[in-house]
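Supplementary Methods, section 5.1.

A reviewer requested that the exact input to the structure prediction be made available. We therefore reproduce it here, unchanged from the version used in the analyses.
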Amino acid sequence: MPTLSDILDEYEFLDADDRYRLLIDLGRELEPMPDALKSDATLVRGCSAAVWVYPTAQAGGTLHFLADSNAAITKGIIALVLLTVQDKSAGDILATDIEAALAPFDLKAQLSSNRTQGIPNMIALIRHEAERLAG
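The structure derived from this sequence is encoded token-by-token as follows.
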């Protein structure tokens, strides 16, 4: 996956339709999440589309997330969020201002409120897992 900065560089030069395509392409690049992990326990509440996030603690104290959605554009948003935290230590995740990292994408202006309403819940779940691992 490219870095968040690389994606932002490209994103800023695109029109709205191409931005949607970019997000959809990012979603396609997500690591596949096995269907067995898509359960009520991994479902992120408050999203207009179904979103599942499954955290795993890795050797060395890092967190790796598997995530998926039944909506292509939402998968792209998930990919952006994961680029800010994937394979980082719990402390680094807790120190990351995920909202600030995503702010330059201005997702609320680009997408409907239905598409962005679950982002805070997904971020809260990621932070909760980092706190649990750090605790």
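The two ends are 29 Å apart (CA to CA). These observations are discussed further in the main text.
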